[in-house]
Amino acid sequence: MCDLVEFRHLKYIAAVAETGNFTRAAERLFLAQPSLSKQIKELEDGIGIQIFVRHHDGVRITPAGQMIVSYAIEAVKTRNEIIQAARAVHGGTIPVLRIGFSCFVQQDVLRSLSEAYASLFPGCSMQFSGGDPVQILHRMEAKSLDAAVLPLPINGEQWTVEPVASAPLVVCMRADDPLAQQTEIQPPELAERLKIFRNPEAHSEAHARLMEMLTEIGITPDVACLATTPTDIQWMVQSSSGLALIDQKTPLDPRLTTRPIANVNWTADTAFVHPLSAEHPALPVLIRHLRKVNGSKPAKHTHRRKYANDLQMKLLA
Amino acid sequence: MCDLVEFRHLKYIAAVAETGNFTRAAERLFLAQPSLSKQIKELEDGIGIQIFVRHHDGVRITPAGQMIVSYAIEAVKTRNEIIQAARAVHGGTIPVLRIGFSCFVQQDVLRSLSEAYASLFPGCSMQFSGGDPVQILHRMEAKSLDAAVLPLPINGEQWTVEPVASAPLVVCMRADDPLAQQTEIQPPELAERLKIFRNPEAHSEAHARLMEMLTEIGITPDVACLATTPTDIQWMVQSSSGLALIDQKTPLDPRLTTRPIANVNWTADTAFVHPLSAEHPALPVLIRHLRKVNGSKPAKHTHRRKYANDLQMKLLA
DNA sequence: TTCGGCCATAGACAGAAGCTATCGCACCTT
DNA sequence: AAGGTGCGATAGCTTCTGTCTATGGCCGAA
Question: What is the β-pairing status of strands A267-275 and A159-174?
Answer without folding.
Answer: antiparallel
